[in-house]
Amino acid sequence: MSRNNGTAPFERGHPARATSELTLRIASGFVLASVVLAATLWGGLPFTVIWAIAGGGVAYEWLALTEEDPAERRTRRVILSALIAASAFALHWGGVGLAVLLVVTALVVLVLVDRRGARLSLRAGGLVYAAVIAVVPVAARETPFGLMTVLWMFGVVWGTDVLAYACGRLLGGPKLWPRVSPKKTWSGFIGGVIAGTIIGWIVLAATLTGGPAPLPVAGMIALSCVAAMISQAGDLGESILKRYLGVKDSGHIIPGHGGLMDRLDSFWAVSVFVGCALVFRALWS
């Protein structure tokens, strides 16, 4: 007689189901990363399309999560999400001013149609959140060190996420913030920061990204370390939002991963960091 752990095959918690979910997660992650990296290396319109889709999708998910009756407001979500997505194209073809105008238009439309909503400020914040995803990577890619900057963002975020998960599972130990995210540990946080710092430094120092390194070694290490910590703060921030809203995932669009917000929370936080640096650079110059 075969032995099992008390659950039928493919029920939640059964080893076969867990293995299947992990395989799906790895496969979908590989495909998604390949598409994004290809668009990043190509640059231009393909890269802009990727982030227009990402920004619009995040806006749609956020609005859906914060609406009391999502079925009746689908058209409204589509319009607002389209405006956020269009801001990426506006930046690519028309500059920052036109992109900001579209984001402001989306906020004005939201206020006009939802001025009595109990969660208006939260929903408006969601549109700004999504606009960061749509606009900042496009703006970063078009700078003199654009390819290096975007690859550095990916390296820090992906390295931090993967090693934080691995160290947390293998080493365990004290919880980082159990009230917000019961599975995250200090070992995962520290391992993620170390990995993100090392990978970020390697990307900045690599000659394959073109041109000389933009910073001295100490600066590259410090910048990558700060970004790795910010990356994990973004993950925790979305955990707080989902606990407040009482949901487990932001959506189900990515097989094995959940929604776009679930995959881009850490990247969003690093995008804010990079966006602030771009604004400072523009003001300084």
Automatic annotation (TrEMBL):
Keywords from UniProt, A to Z, are: Cell membrane, Lipid biosynthesis, Lipid metabolism, Membrane, Nucleotidyltransferase, Phospholipid biosynthesis, Phospholipid metabolism, Transferase, Transmembrane, Transmembrane helix
Compartments annotated for it: namely: Cell membrane
Pathway-wise, it operates in: Lipid metabolism; Phospholipid metabolism; CDP-diacylglycerol biosynthesis; CDP-diacylglycerol from sn-glycerol 3-phosphate: step 3/3
Q: Which reaction does it catalyse?
A: a 1,2-diacyl-sn-glycero-3-phosphate + CTP + H(+) = a CDP-1,2-diacyl-sn-glycerol + diphosphate
Question: Which domain of life does this protein belong to?
Answer: Bacteria
Q: Which GO terms describe its biological process?
A: CDP-diacylglycerol biosynthetic process
Q: Which Pfam families match?
A: CTP_transf_1
GO molecular function annotations of the record? phosphatidate cytidylyltransferase activity
| Broad class of enzyme this protein falls into | transferase
Instruction: State its Enzyme Commission number(s).
Output: 2.7.7.41
One Gene Ontology cellular component: plasma membrane
Topology within the bilayer: Multi-pass membrane protein
Q: Where are the transmembrane segments?
A: 22-42, 78-108, 120-140, 147-166, 186-208, 266-284
What's the name of the protein?
Phosphatidate cytidylyltransferase
| Source organism of this protein record | Chelatococcus asaccharovorans
Its lineage reads:
Bacteria, Pseudomonadati, Pseudomonadota, Alphaproteobacteria, Hyphomicrobiales
